[in-house]
């Protein structure tokens, strides 16, 4: 008895990736266009020193203070002398802080106090978080055009925060 083995010929199948490549060509740009780009900014806040000596407590340097209140923004330097009272301005849906005017006031203060780098921002309890962050952006620096390019000029980068009710 002879065994007759028939060999089956196996045809190698080719992968057709054309449709997959077409899908990728369409899908990648669509995904890139729908991405949301977020910018995260970190503000460094200077905290008060807990180990102050008694001599440094008696000889406090004058502070530049920006107070965010319900009626507007007040700028003081030193602590008991008001430089400017900036009232709220009318916005589309109510009233808002006039940060443009605050920036102009702080630019003038910086011209007079060119070596000063610190500022104390005091806020009342009713001030919202976004207004506080916007105030921090304004007191830190401002943008201007120099030699046909936009540059950021430093004002008071060392920011301290406090509650206005404890003043």
Could you describe the 3D structure shown?
- This protein is of the alpha/beta class.
- It has a domain at 63-166.
- The protein has four helices and nine strands.
- The protein has helices at residues 18-33, 54-58, 99-112, 129-140, and strands at 65-68, 72-76, 82-87, 89-91, 94-96, 118-123, 141-146, 149-154, 158-163.
- The strands form three sheets. A five-stranded mixed beta sheet has the order 3-2-1-6-9, with helices on one face. Strands 4-5 form a two-stranded antiparallel sheet.
- A hairpin with a 2-residue loop joins strand 7 (141-146) and strand 8 (149-154).
- Helix 3 (99-112) runs parallel beside helix 4.
- The chain is elongated, with a radius of gyration of 31 Å.
